[in-house]
From TrEMBL, chain A:
Molecular function as annotated in GO: ATP binding; ATP hydrolysis activity; transmembrane transporter activity
Keywords: ATP-binding, Cell inner membrane, Cell membrane, Lipoprotein, Membrane, Nucleotide-binding, Translocase, Transport
Pfam families xref list: ABC_tran
GO aspect biological process, one term: protein localization to outer membrane
Family designation: Belongs to the ABC transporter superfamily. Macrolide exporter (TC 3.A.1.122) family.
Annotated protein name in UniProt: Lipoprotein-releasing system ATP-binding protein LolD
Gene3D superfamilies xref list: P-loop containing nucleotide triphosphate hydrolases
Species of the source: Alsobacter metallidurans
SUPFAM superfamilies, sorted: P-loop containing nucleoside triphosphate hydrolases
Disulfide bond keyword on record: no
Signal peptide range: none
ABC transporter domain span: 5-227
Gene: lolD
PANTHER family: IMPORT ATP-BINDING PROTEIN (PTHR24220), LIPOPROTEIN-RELEASING SYSTEM ATP-BINDING PROTEIN LOLD (PTHR24220:SF689)
Automatic annotation (TrEMBL), chain B:
GO biological process: lipoprotein localization to outer membrane
InterPro entries from the UniProt entry: ABC3_permease_C, Lipoprotein-release_system, MacB_PCD
Keywords annotated in UniProt: Cell membrane, Membrane, Transmembrane, Transmembrane helix
Name under which the protein is recorded: ABC transporter permease
GO cellular component, one term: plasma membrane protein complex
Amino acid sequence: MADVLVLEGIRKSFNIGTSVETEVLHGIDLRVRAGEFVAIIGPSGSGKSTLLNIIGLLDRPTSGNLFITGLDVSDLSDAALTGLRGHAIGFVFQHHYLISAFTAGENVMMPMLVDRGRPSPAMERRADELLSLVGLTKWRNNKATNMSGGQQQRVAIARALAMKPALVLADEPTGNLDTASAEAVFALMRSINRDQATSFVIVTHNLSLAQRCDRIVQVVDGQIASG
Amino acid sequence: MTRWLPFEWIAALRFLAEGRLQTGFILGGVSIGVAVIVFMSAMLAGLQANFIRRVLTSQPHIQILPPDEVARPLRAGPGVVEAAIVQRPTQRVISIDQWQRIAAEISGRPDVNMVAPTATGSALAVRGSASRSINVTGMDPALYFQIVRMPDYIVAGEMRLGSDDVIVGTELAKELGASVGDKLNVASAAAEGRSLTITAIFDLGNKGVNGRNAYVALRTAQSLLNLIGGATTIDVTVKDIYAAETIAQDIAAVSPVEADSWIKTNAQFFTAVKAQQTSNTIIRLFVGLSVAFGIAAVLVVSVIQRSKDIGILRAMGARRAQVLRVFLIQGGVLGFAGSAFGSVLGAAALVVWHRYARQADGAELFPLILEPTLFVAAMALATITGVAAGTAPALRAAKLDPVEAIRG
């Protein structure tokens, strides 16, 4: 199966050129195959979030090569990266981060709206489809802020899938949820991964969830210790 | 979600709607600012129009006069020092040299509206044992009344000027005990007197003018003042009243005449008008600036409050330009909506003020002029100001690093 994500010798330094220059990633090599469900674990400050930001094209590595769906992104312009991010990658964050000015349905539509510029019936149908997938059809017209944390996170997952991305990145997706909700959200992601062959890379501290992923990548001190 | 709106508009309107209190307060601020601008502009335009109408409907914009007569002493010759005392000669009532040609030249100018030659001089009006010195103006009514709207000021009789007719002011009529249809003997030092019939009595709103001025046909004045075929002044109106002085200087430069504009002869009034315009402009500028700063302040706060939303939008593929537009639109919408409310508020204030603010005699203080162009201009300017005020916050939003924004 083709690789959705390839990292070759990824390094990342902060405060470059100053006396406090710090390298937080020391040459990361990683491959994620299409349809794979990978957990990244590691202690706080090990560089997991930086790694996720680089994979998500929100940040650029200092050196190394990054391929998303086979495309070398190292030399892409900011605008091209933004475009690729919108189409190829979906994000789920720890704090849900739905846009409070919009309803659940509109939040799910948002990536399509950003991409195409104007709403359309097709977008609404896709949003309905995704809300039904995450079991929130009747919450469609609810303001995001009027929902529980678990529900918001399910809306966020639906939103991440809106553009049919090859890869969904989730940063502590269950970190802010109670055990039951965390379990439900994880099960949802797992089922989507299975049914739609979407690859998932999740950063988590929850070892029991990590153990139920296809592969665990352990990051310690900016290097991959195992996986 | 409104289908026909683009994403940027949808986001901008939703953000404004969500921050209801903030939006309400700034809309209130913009509305009051625009209302003040609209109110001041319309009121001052009305006041000014009123003043100018009063001043300029009873006098020409430019008056062409013959040059002063000067004495030119004969010099003994080069190298001879003379201590000459040159006495100013008396100024006779004389005609403008070749006034027909000069009048034709002036009326040929594209910036001139109307040209009316007049023959003006002093005379004595006698009725029975009463006599008064008067200032006789002889003119062609068809031309002159388009410059000085005498028919508007007639209080008795009818506007008719034959060769034996005269129009006098209320004060003169009172002093001579004369009314419409009565005869008046008018004589000047230069020629024989004539008996004229009063056909109308005017009230120009000024006691001195009403007691001194008398109007006759041009030919009558020419014979009264012994100026056969002559004209002592040429009255001119111009299209742009504020260009009167420049035009007057132009005329004086090319013809052997003196040209006095209303600006020069009413220097004090003109200074007052100018001062009013300047203070009006300054006040409007500062009100406009405070509106702009208000909008900018609210949008800066909004960018900070929404930095996570901006980060999320950027993460899901929103381009910097899209984020920029979301905030520019908010600035423009605040300016436009605020100015729409402000225009209504300003117009309402004008109507109320116009109804209750009266002069001592009960006449309106200023004409109520609700020019649509003023409102359109105010709204266009406020919208542009809103967009301009939104630029700094919008750039800040567009530059936000999504990683930083999401982390908060």
